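Report of the visiting student (M.T.), summer placement. My assignment was to run the structure pipeline on a short list of targets and document each run. The first record concerns Vacuolar protein sorting-associated protein 74.
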Amino acid sequence: MSGLQRRRVKNANTGELSGSSQPASPKVPASSIAGVVPDRTNEDHKIAYDPEDMNTSKQNSSAPLLTLMEEVLLMGIKDKEGYLSFWNDNISYALRGCIILELAFRGKIQMLNDPARRRFELNERLIEVIDDSLTGEVLLDETLKLMKNDEGHLSVSTWIDLLSGETWNLMKINYQLKQVRERLAKGLVDKGVLRTERKNFLLFDMATHPVADLTCKDSIKKRVLSLLVARNAALNNNKFFTENVDYKWLRSICLVCGCFAANVLENVLVRLNYDQRDNAFARADELLNEYSEYPFLSQTSSLGVGANVAEEVNKEIEELGNKELQLEVIAAVLSVFSKMDSLL
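After the run finished, the structure tokens were exported:
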């Protein structure tokens, strides 16, 4: 019986018969045969990451948990009632100034590096964006985007006016930040400092935000009182204000000035007697005048309090590098605060 048969052809390379029906033996690495453990050090496991996230986490480590705006707002909110005074007209404008301060502290903006800028007042000098990476704070990122997309450079006082809606320029009326106080309060709710409730005010219901974490508010009050009352000020570190925060002393001074300008400082001083309260207000005004100029005056207080403040501020400025253009922005905002009575 004839039939087709498969020829067995010898493979020239291996010497095996390609047509054999025997199963091919598996190839074994030479290192295994020799008893040597195979080297797998080159088999790296790589993990993808977003460089933007790494930069953000690094920036957040040098920034406190609460922004300056949130701290000032928290000082104005009544603990149990959960709302601000209806008669406070200054806080909205002051909060916009605190936004500019926070951006400067985080190294996002600085004065335009122009030698001719010294001919102008601090609040009239132009500012520019030097780092447009996101901060994770909605109001800061929104303001940063407005500054980045603006065609020209504007002054510190102009930006605060635009963010507050205090402008006749119809082309920039959309620069106004809307519902700043409510958005800051919701941010504090997300951080566990406040909680949300609804209360009835005769004709309407309103969302209120009573204080949920009194330890946070008390720690801020202690920091403010230390600068205004104590002979030698001390800043206590906690989870809200860690030791890694940059410009701790200058931040605390700006907090005092922000509360003073926003007309909420009295809430912090409520437990002091009349003379202590009067001296505390005088000290706040003294700090505002000293740090609303650049270079900072940093004088010894005539009231006998905060004897070490000027030394501590100068020390941290030297340690972090003398970032003159950013510090000018801080002084410029404080100079706007010092003139708020004539502005509003």
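Confidence is low (pLDDT under 50) at residues 16-28, 30-37. Residues 23 and 310 are 87 Å apart (CA to CA). I thank the supervising group for their guidance throughout the placement.
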